[in-house]
Write a structure and sequence with these properties.
The chain is α+β, with helices and mostly antiparallel strands. Helices cover 40% and strands 8% of the residues. It has 15 helices and six strands. The strands form two sheets. The chain has a four-stranded mixed sheet. Strands 1-2 form a two-stranded antiparallel sheet. Strand 1 and strand 2 form a beta hairpin. Helix 4 packs across helix 5 and helix 4 packs across helix 6. The longest helix has 19 residues. It is elongated. The N terminus is likely disordered.
Amino acid sequence: MQHKVAALLVLAFVSIPLHPAAAASLPDIKISPSNTVPECVTPGRMLAFLKSRNADLNPRFESVPSEYMRQGELLGVRWDFAFYQMILETGSLSYRRGNRSSDVKPSQNNFAGLGAIGGGEPGESFKDIPTGVRAHLEHLLLYSGEKLENPTADRTRKVQEWGVLTKWQARFTRPINFGDLAAQWAPGSNSYARMLDGIAERFVEFCEQPDPRPELAEAVRRDLRLAAARAQQPSGAELARRAIEAGRAEKNERPSALGAQQTPAQRPLAAAPPTGDKASPVPFKVLNPPVPEADGPAPAAAVADKVATAPKEREGKARTAAQKSGAAEPPAFQVASAAGAAKQAAPAQAAPPAAGQKCRVWTASYGGQKALIIRSVIDKVVNYTVLDVNDGAEKREADAFIAAYAKDGTITGEFPSQTQALDKAFELCPEG
């Protein structure tokens, strides 16, 4: 992206020759342990600096400093100098060249003149401020030599695909800095690097003052902490993949839950009927296989996991568990309401399996207190999965479960607790 520097800016610095040390004194584009943003550079001070240069700053641009910090930290770019370059490119967000408007308009959210090559060409437009800031920072990453996957700006994509910077970047045996970028960004100008350095020097006086808006920096840091925490948490697909691999390693037909063995009410999403792919078993927990009775009474929480062979005994244990835990008597079976829109093809009441047809009862959980019964038929076996769902997210969670584990399944009931749903599931499928 090569274009001329705004006429006003060239006139302002044309008398100042570019000292060879000026470019070298500018920092590397990418953040590293030895190349970090000074602690005093905060969104609050950046906003005050911006307003000191543009008294008529459009209020909608007040979030720009915070976005440079947020996106810069995520991408690993020296966002302070990226911000200074934004000031240089946009005339401190006035988008003016002296007494006339620049080719790029404020509504474009284009903070680096991406695609604006002069001659009235306005360049690219971005849907909002965060997207525009990210496009600028990604373009800086491209200059640093990093390859980008699906860059935001079309200009960035073209420069990368065409290899415009490849030969230039091959000359460097050290990290590319903002001084190097200045010479390539505005070829023919001997002042671009000096102007960047001059803006940075003027900011120093704001570093020496208290932060007028410390809450802005704290809000960004909080967002970054949350983003880091989310990045460390494996996705549902990753959890499923891990469990499938664990199941394959065990080489048996009773793979364990995704985590440690837990009671049905505590178990994470781990109980799901197989989907027909015998080579890729899905972690599950069948609740009514033939199992020997243990000595002594079973704990209430374990009733659903250890079931007697006789249907009446099994049903009675589930009701006893509900009474011991203080739960209300299981209500009459009802058709799902809030979650019923998910593949709702079930009759008013779910029918038990046909005579001679095998069935199984399973549990799965998204961690909620409500429970749905999902009926599916796989390999001629009728599966009733009691799925714990979160209030308000029933449809979304049921849809996701059906798509992943119960193809063509239907929701046949909604209950206020897992115990009551299990009671009905055992009524539908009493066999061991």
